[in-house]
Amino acid sequence: MLKRIDQALFDTVAAEARQTPRLRRNHNLHAEPDLVQRFLNVLQPGTYVRPHRHCRATPGAGFECFLVLQGAIGLLLLDDQGQVRGRERLEAAGPLRGIELEEGHLHTLVALEPDTVMFELKQGPYEPTADKDFLAHFPAEGTPEAAAQERAWRALFDQA
Q1: Whole-prediction pTM value?
Q2: Which CATH number does the domain 28-158 belong to among 3.40.50.150, 1.10.8.100, 2.60.120.10, 3.30.300.30?
């Protein structure tokens, strides 16, 4: 069976993302029990991704690979106190289009352009209760504090 990854799919998932309170939507290419997670993550400016890291029982299995197919993403690397220690701009039309992040690195993402589409690849199977280790002192999604934090992070890329 073929799973087409085309502009029509990008447009459909982007429209869905615009209608959700989170301003993002995943389109899975994998089934939940698969050993490799493959999916499109479509983000709109204003979406808040709470800082987190991925740690797995098997060393090295908590990596994430991001490839921007449309639009632009800001990736922020954080220390244990939540201070920004690095930033990368990933753009479909830019010099840096993707990145692989090793297990255990605290990070967050901001959408820098409307209808941004990323392809993500990471180890499966997906385990909702153990997938992410969140930095506790950051606000929960859907709060005014989260919206303010996202705007501050996005502004870091306006200055770049």
Answers
A1: 0.92
A2: 2.60.120.10
